[in-house]
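Per reviewer request, we include the raw input and output of the structure prediction for the construct analysed in the revised manuscript.
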Amino acid sequence: MKRKEVEELKRKPPAELEKLLRESRERLRILRFDLAAGKVKNTRELQDVRKYVARIETFLRTST
């Protein structure tokens, strides 16, 4: 994730961050099922989505 993208995340309101968090968790769930089924070619995406979820959770904690 680029620095510019992180700065954009910091500026988003908490409601939008929560929406992004729900979408990212759903994407992570789908990736985990696909990984177990052997459908995932890019396993790095799993790690990237996990880190993205962690960043969003961090920004939510610090903004409230």
